[in-house]
Design goal:
It is built from eight helices and no strands. It is mainly α.
Length: 154
Amino acid sequence: MSCLAGWQSQDINTIGAIYSLLLKRVYTSRIEPPLAFEDYKDLFLRFYEQCITEDSALADDLDSFVLSRYTAAHDFTRWFISVFQDDQIPRRYIYEIKNWLKQLYIDGSPAVKLCIETGILEHLFTIEQIKRDFSDWKSDPLLKSAYRAALASH
């Protein structure tokens, strides 16, 4: 079990520092045993969620590891695409992440909803296979407006 599995810090800057390190292969390649996807997935999702929902002023501080709402959305998008295209990652994690995004959208403020539509879904839907994977959103009364808005940009 990874030491990240039980990581409980609520400090967004601390989580951001760990996130930043885990994105760099120069650091992760030194970890023994190597981290598995499930070792860091929840930490990444917690970081993205806090950045997207809080849109902290810390994001403007050059010494901070916090991302602005839309920078976090774009980082999430790149990460999701890489996860989606990685055959080594079990598909159940794709559904977990989709459910996380669904809940983030449903619970989100209007600003969070707009960010998910324009900062995440619009970009994800440029990949046909991902767009098809999200087709269940078009019949969900809580998600269909997001699905349509993201499609309208194409």
